[in-house]
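Could you help me review a protein record that somebody else here produced? This is what I was given.
***
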Amino acid sequence: MKNFRSRRGRRAVALPEVSLTPLIDTALTLLVIFMITTPMMNNVIKINLPSSSVNEGNSRDQQETIVYVDKQSKLYLNGAEMNLQAILLNLQKMSQHKEIDIVFVKADQDVEYGKVIELVDIMKTAGGIKYVALATQRAVH
């Protein structure tokens, strides 16, 4: 506590002094505790999922539609080299006969990301395509 004396010489008034250091220490300790325990809480619940005898179909039964983009930005639809307009026409023809669930885009990692996204956007406008998915390779550690 600090004592102050007024100008007129009156008795000193004691002002309470609040130390914020313990409060800040407590707050930071709680923050660290929550940062450590929150990721652990996601793995606490262990469940065994029930099994089902219903066969939901084999995804290999459906023919996959794949658009490849190589390092030189050449486009291929299911292995055949085409330009963008030809790919769009073929996708539209394919979607007229049967709705295409997913078109996989397998682009080389050296292809500019913006070009891949532009390709995805253009394919989405073709119509009849539910999803356009970007394929990746599983990382081996």
